[in-house]
Specification:
With about 220 residues, the chain is mainly alpha-helical. Helix content is about 80%, strand content about 0%. The protein is elongated.
C-alpha cells in the first residue's frame, strides 16, 4: 500500500495535533537548553587554562558532567529520567514529560557548542579588553557573546534540529508528537500513508529551520 491522499486528509487533525505537540516539546527544551547551557558553555571556556577565570577544578568537574550526560543514548536517558520526570510534571508520558528528558539531553549538547564557538575568538581581543580595564562580566557580555554570536546562533540551529530527532524518538515511549503518531499509526498499524507523511513533515521542518538558522547566522556575522 502506497500513499493514500484521501486517508491523509482524514488523518489531518491527528497530524496537526502531533505537529503542535512536537513544536511544544522542542520549544520548551530549546529554551531550557539555552538558559542553562549558555552559562555552562561560557564557564567551560573561561575557567580553562590561561583564561581570566582559570579554575581547573571547576572546568574538570563541569566537563565530566557534560561528557557523562552526552555519552548516554537518548532512549536510555528517557527511561533513566522517569522518576525525575514524574516529580516535575506528575506523569511520565505526553509532550510535557518528554520535554524533561529532551532538555537534559540538549543542555550539555548546546554547552559544548557554545564552548567551541568561544574558542574560535581571537584571544588578543580578550587580552585587549582586560588591558582596557574591563570587568569579567563586561568581557563576557561585550566581547565573548558579541564575537561568538554567529557561532552560537548556528549552535541553536543545530540543537533545534537534534531536538526534532530526539522528539521523534520520544514517541516510542508515549512522548507524543510526530514520533508517537508514526509509531502508533504507521508502525503498529502498517499505515504507509502516515509513515510517509510524518517523515516528510520532519524533513521539511528540518530544512526550514536550517535555512533560517544559516540566514540569521550570516546576518549577525560581522567577520
Amino acid at each position: 500500500m502506497g500513499f493514500d491522499f484521501g486517508h491523509f486528509v482524514e488523518l489531518l487533525p491527528d497530524i496537526n495535533t502531533a505537529f503542535l505537540q512536537t513544536i511544544y516539546m522542542i520549544s520548551i527544551s530549546l529554551a531550557v537548553a539555552v538558559i542553562v547551557g549558555l552559562p555552562i558553555g561560557i564557564l567551560l571556556y573561561i575557567t580553562d587554562k590561561g583564561l581570566f577565570w582559570e579554575n581547573q577544578a571547576v572546568q574538570s568537574m563541569l566537563g565530566f558532567i557534560v561528557n557523562l550526560v552526552r555519552s548516554i543514548p537518548f532512549i536510555i536517558l528517557l527511561v533513566a529520567l522517569i522518576p525525575l520526570t514524574k516529580a516535575i510534571v506528575g506523569t511520565q508520558i505526553g509532550p510535557a514529560a518528554a520535554s524533561v528528558s529532551l532538555s537534559v539531553a540538549a543542555i550539555p549538547f548546546f554547552a559544548r557548542i557554545v564552548e567551541t564557538a568561544l574558542r574560535e575568538i581571537d584571544k588578543g581581543v580578550i587580552e585587549a579588553a582586560i588591558a582596557a580595564g574591563a570587568t569579567p562580566w563586561m568581557i563576557i557580555k561585550d566581547v565573548l557573546l558579541l564575537e561568538a554570536k554567529s557561532g552560537i546562533i548556528s549552535g541553536i540551529t543545530l540543537t533545534l534540529i537534534s531536538l526534532i530527532g530526539f522528539s521523534a524518538m520520544a514517541g516510542t515511549v508515549g512522548g507524543g508528537g510526530i514520533g508517537d503518531l508514526a509509531i502508533r499509526f504507521g508502525y503498529y498499524r502498517y499505515d504507509n500513508t502516515i509513515m510517509i507523511a510524518t517523515v516528510l513533515i520532519l524533513v521539511i521542518l528540518v530544512q526550514v529551520i536550517q535555512i533560517l538558522g544559516d540566514f540569521i547566522a550570516k546576518v549577525v556575522d560581522k567577520r
